[in-house]
Design a protein that fits this description.
Low-confidence stretches: none
Mean pLDDT: 89
Structural class: alpha/beta
Strand content: 15-25%
Radius of gyration: 23 Å
Shape: globular
Bound molecules: zinc ion
Largest sheet: 9 strands, mixed
Strand order of the largest sheet: 4-3-5-6-7-8-9-14-13
Helix content: 25-40%
């Protein structure tokens, strides 16, 4: 009964103007949200068990009785993986009539994962996105230009829906070259730009050379960015760059930053979040269960992203708790002579180092006696290689005592390898850390 009342209230809240929704949700007690999550989880679990062939078979095989499960943690070591989506195909997960689908390729396999949705789900996701964007300062009078890639990608669809609720001017450029975007954008006087972070970096470099115009904010989705690259963009435009975190499987946004930029406020109304295999700092793989999806619900979906759940309230006062900045993908965590490293380590080594492009990649090899860590950087001037390498090593010494000790003990070799600008990124996503030691060992045999 209580849950029913809370759900009714939530429905009303999501139909209010975004500013009233935020105010109302901020007043809601945490227990009310938890109560609603629990009820929605049970409903989702039953739906999956009844209608999805994948979940029905999995639960049967594992002796899981959905009627007895009240909380995701009671499912033990049962998880859904991206590989499950590929192997069993999306149809095995369907529980209702689908109106649309999107795809994601990721960095591990060229085979896309397909995910299905309904228009009603798109509408609901648009409403919560509008709340997040309103919280960041987006208003009706703003002029939005989006360079989100419209090919099979979920983000432009969710953004389009969200902006309908905010009622602001919106033009979709699609993912065209930053050069062309720059030339055509000015005519619309956009003060808000959406794009993938690496694309925004290139656009900003261009704007730095050719001139900027007044900007309220920039918004990046679809991948991570180093704090150094973010601050470069912000200095060029004299405006903040905010990031969202999400996956196609989650229907876009799982969380969005606020003005403090200290993690992503998570969407607890639509997802139940967990983390698994935590390290000593409380970081582990993010796992989520969808709570408001009828077409293709996902139970304990493994995101392959390493982060932590932050339960302390944010200084901004928003009711939603946070996910910490993503540290790595699980397949980019490498144990090597340097230590247990992931992309955040190298982003931190590059913070404050000038003379290189925004893209970088680390390749771990073994030369027969020790691991070789190659930091591949796009340099305009290859003559600066020595200078850049020295600056990176100073950061290594000052910021990572343990990794520096291992370096001094010669447990690994560290090199900066210069690359041509624009040469590292082949697709939309760039795998930041590549472990090629198996490959080199095989070649040596
Ligand atoms: Zn906040």
């Amino acid at each position: 009964m209580l849950t029913h009342i809370i759900e009714q209230i939530e429905r009303v809240v999501l139909h209010m103007e975004p500013q009233r929704s935020v105010a109302f949700l901020n007043m809601s007690p945490q227990w009310a949200i938890e109560k609603m999550q629990r009820a929605r989880f049970q409903r989702t679990l039953r739906l999956a068990a009844e209608r999805s062939t994948f979940y029905r078979e999995q639960f049967k095989r594992r002796g899981i009785d959905p009627r007895r499960i009240e909380h995701p943690s009671e499912l033990g070591d049962f998880y859904t993986t991206g590989e499950d989506l590929r192997v069993h195909s999306a149809e095995a997960f369907l529980t209702g009539h689908a109106d649309t689908a999107f795809e994601t390729t990721g960095t591990t396999s060229p085979a896309p994962k397909r995910v299905f949705f309904s228009q009603a789900e798109l509408l609901a996701m648009g409403r919560t996105s509008a709340i997040g964007l309103y919280h960041l300062g987006l208003r009706r009078e703003d002029r939005v230009l989006s360079a989100y890639d419209c090919s099979f990608w979920v983000s432009p669809a969710v953004l389009r829906m969200g902006l309908q609720f905010l009622k602001c001017f919106h033009v979709e450029a699609g993912k065209i070259s930053p050069q062309e975007f720059y030339d055509r954008a000015r005519a619309y006087k956009p003060n808000v730009i959406f794009g993938e972070p690496s694309w925004i970096v290139r656009l900003s470099e261009l704007a730095g050379e050719r001139g900027t115009w007044p900007m309220k904010l920039l918004f990046g989705g679809g991948e991570n960015i180093s704090e150094q690259a973010r601050s470069d963009v912000e200095q060029i435009w004299k405006a903040p760059l905010y990031l969202s975190y999400g996956q196609t499987e989650s229907f876009g946004t799982l969380g969005v930053e606020c003005k403090h930029k200290e993690g992503y406020h998570r969407n607890d109304l639509f997802f139940y979040f967990e983390t698994r295999e935590l390290d000593t700092e409380g970081y582990g793989e993010l796992v989520y269960t969808t709570l408001a999806r009828d077409v293709m619900p996902l139970i304990r979906y493994r995101s392959t992203d390493v982060t932590a759940l932050i339960e302390e309230p944010c200084p901004c006062g928003l009711f939603a708790r946070r996910i910490a900045k993503i540290r790595a993908r699980t397949d980019e965590m490498v144990v090597c002579g340097m230590g247990n490293v992931g992309p955040w380590v190298f982003a931190e080594l590059l913070r404050g180092v000038n003379g290189h492009g925004a893209d970088w990649q680390v390749v771990v090899n073994h030369d027969g006696s020790r691991d070789v860590i190659e930091l591949r950087l796009e340099l305009k001037n290859f003559g600066h290689q020595g200078e850049v390498e020295r600056a990176v090593l100073v950061n290594l010494r000052e910021r990572f005592t343990d990794f520096w000790k291992n370096y001094e003990m010669k447990l690994y070799e560290f090199r900066v390898v210069p690359c041509e600008p624009g040469s590292l990124r082949a697709g939309r996503k760039l795998k930041l850390v590549l472990d090629q030691r198996q490959l080199t060992a095989r070649r040596a045999r």
